[in-house]
Input
Amino acid sequence: MPELTRRRALTAAAVLAGTAGVLPAVVPATAATGHHDSPGTFDEVYKGRRIQGRPAGGTGHHHHGAGYAVFVDGVELHVMRNADGTWISVVSHYDPVATPRAAARAAVDELQGAPLLPFPAN
Output
């Protein structure tokens, strides 16, 4: 497990600060979907990586993310919604964030240019 360094602490602070700015943009999209507690869809390029998120369809795959799917460069990033409403991913499991978009961005930051490998589902 990597040690907490000044760089990691500053990165985490930047992600949290960025999340605060993103949250108002996500709230109207959520309201527009008709699902009270479901985050909206997003598709953007973040630090040269394409990140996408959308409500998960009935693919038969078990999602812990309350029916929400997140992708980094087309590879699914497994996300999970915590009881307090925060989100975590398989890449940044110990760094809860406010939205799936913030989880995707945190994963891109943590990957530092490395590709996201498919996570085998059991």
